[in-house]
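Rather than argue in generalities, we reproduce a single protein record, letters for residues, whole numbers for local backbone shapes, just as it appears below:
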Amino acid sequence: MPCPPYASLAASTPDEALRPTASRRPLYVVEISEGHRGFLPTDLYVRRFWSAHLGIEAVTDLLRIVQAGRQGNAVRRPLSLPLLLAAGLVHVEGNVIVVVDRIPKLDSTAVGRLPVALRKAHHQWQQKPSAPPNGSPGSNGQRRNLTGHKSGRNPKVRSPR
């Protein structure tokens, strides 16, 4: 008996070889609408608290959607699109994903579902909007952005050559 894969079991067409779950996800065009209140998607608030609320994958998909919209690219249907729709962070109109360029604060129900340590950190964040949280780079007001932050080097780690 010959070794697998057996010639008689091979798919006759390439489409037959794919399982239904392995089919390509449809492309969506991204439109960004301007928001006047809230945080930039790259702010530490979004990364810290929205990631804890929705999950890292959902926030990563949100960042990909925003980046695709800014660059004018289309994006494949995100796997966590239902979570983003339920949270009200995106809207879908046909094959167009509409996202606001500002992310709102978590509501009190969502904050209540956070772990105790994050709940306390969120409360401190609300009390002192101009002071940076522990370990984060200082900046002005709500715009706690990590993009311009450069951490100190560890002397035990060698530099790439």
